[in-house]
Amino acid sequence: MAVRGVKGCALRPRTQNPDPHVLKAPRKGFSKLALSQILAALKVFFWPLIAYNIAMYTFTTFLRFRIPGFTGLLFLFLSPLALALPSASVEPKLAVILNSGDASVSLIDMPTRKVVKTLAVGKEPHHLMMTPDEKTLLIANAVGNDVVLMNPTTGELTGRIPNIIDPYQIGYSPNHKWFVANGNRLDRVDIYAADGANLKLAKTVKLAKTPSHIAFTADSKIAFITLQDSNELAAIDLDTQNVLWKMPTAKVPAGLWMTPGDQYLLLGATGEDNVQVIDWKNRKEVKRIFTGKGAHNFRPLGDKKHVFVTNRIASSISMINMQTLEKVGDITGLPAGPDDMEITPDGKTLWVTLRFSKKVGVIDIPSMKLMTVIPVGKSPHGVFFYPRAAWE
After folding, report:
1. Residue 242, Cβ neighbours under 10 Å: how many?
2. Is residue 262 helix, strand or coil?
3. Is the backbone of residue 368 left (phi > 0), alpha (psi -120 to 50) or beta?
4. 358 — phi, psi (to 5°)?
5. Over its length of 392 residues, how does the chain's per-residue pLDDT go in tens digits?
6. Domain boundaries, given as residue ranges, for the chain
7. pTM of the model
8. Which residues make Cβ contacts (< 8 Å) with residue 139, sequence separation at least 6?
9. Alpha helices (H) along the chain
10. What is the rounded distance in angstroms from the CA atom of residue 319 to the CA atom of residue 327?
11. Burial of 247 (0-12, 13-18, 19+ CB in 10 A)
């Protein structure tokens, strides 16, 4: 976020837990999500087994071949089971919206596009992240100094991880070994050794001013952090937890996205009207892609070719071709403050939080048109649903 509601207020100093320790998430039983995935996997084998047994019957009848005994038994076992299994849904049903100004989460029934429940979660929930096993959603409460655990498909709150200090933006490294939490308010980056939602603080890196968003190299060696109030980009070596370098950027840098092959970093210049393309290996600017005032955050389409960027002041969303580094389209006429985005698994519908409007927008991607808006809480920021389009 470029301008935070608490900025400029007198803040009571908060200190890090003097005895960093492993912060364990509560263990849960067999999840509905895991069960649905197993049932779907079983159904994959049903029709191939039918085809195999028809072929074997033909061979037996006309060519006098014997069918291996275990195949028939396996077919007899799986056939009624597969027929009895419910169809695994491929469409998300529940959208999770973080109302950072209300300390709450809105749960939206996606088919009806109605808010069905509002839950209190903690002070200033801004960003969220799913655990690598895709069983738990982490909701970071920046002023609450903790992370709330939620079932990603039912919206049930399942636990809380305390003493995660000022977690404004969070993210797992691609190898899932590291968990990074940017302390936007306290000018710090906390790096944790991660085992799912079990986190052990490795190091706190002091990093001024105002650490904002995160991106990683594919090999999980480097984390990049935008510093929105000093107009800089920092690179941190994750193995040593040391700052490798800083470089100047466009004004009020916020969102980051790495193009395929780790070639360039795309940086949302929220204090300007463009996306800055950075050759991070040589620490230099390649070009600017002009999108609209308040270029802020990114969400890839999932085709490894296109990425969306929200323009918060222009109230628009731009699509960028990551291969040509050119803008190829705009979604205009949105209510004020488009911010974070999520895309349905078929790649046809984009959901976006409208930060200054207390709403969520639902956009038809093929036509690039806003279909509807849904009222939610104050200053909606993060948005999530599962399943979703790939982040690539």
Report:
1. 11
2. helix
3. left
4. 60, 40
5. 333 333 333 333 333 443 433 444 444 444 444 444 554 555 555 555 555 555 555 444 444 444 444 444 444 444 444 444 434 448 999 999 999 999 999 999 999 999 999 999 999 999 999 999 999 999 999 999 999 999 999 999 999 999 999 999 999 999 999 999 999 999 999 999 999 999 999 999 999 999 999 999 999 999 999 999 999 999 999 999 999 999 999 999 999 999 999 999 999 999 999 999 999 999 999 999 999 999 999 999 999 999 999 999 999 999 999 999 999 999 999 999 999 999 999 999 999 999 999 999 999 999 999 999 999 999 999 999 999 999 99
6. 33-84, 93-384
7. 0.80
8. 96, 98, 105, 121, 122, 125, 128, 147, 148, 149, 150, 382
9. 32-44, 46-58, 69-84
10. 6
11. middle
Q: Which two tokens stand for residue 38?
A: 């197993």
Beta pairing partners, 140: 127, 147
Total residue length of the chain: 392
What does DSSP assign to residue 88?
P
Upper half-sphere CA count for residue 308 (Cβ side, 13 Å): 27
Using alpha carbons, select from 223, 218, 216, 163 the residue that is nearest to residue 189. Answer: 223
* Nearest Cα residue to 368 out of 387, 341, 350: 350
- Spatial contact of 270 and 294, defined as CB atoms under 8 Å apart: yes
93-384 under CATH 3.30.450.40, yes or no: no
Tokens found for residue 173 = 């490294």
Provide DSSP, 100-125: TTTTEEEEEETTTTEEEEEEE--S-E
**Cβ proximity of 63 and 56 under 8 Å:** no
CB-side exposure of 288: number of CA atoms within 13 Å? 11
Q: Are 310 and 317 in contact (CB under 8 A)?
A: yes
Residue carrying structure tokens 């107009």: 231
Number of H helices, E strands in the chain: 3, 29
How many degrees, rounded to 5, is the angle at CA 102 between CA 339 and CA 160? Answer: 95
Q: What is the C-alpha separation between 226 and 182, in angstroms, rounded?
A: 10
Structural tokens at position 280 = 């991070």
C-alpha 151/C-alpha 345 separation (Å) is 19
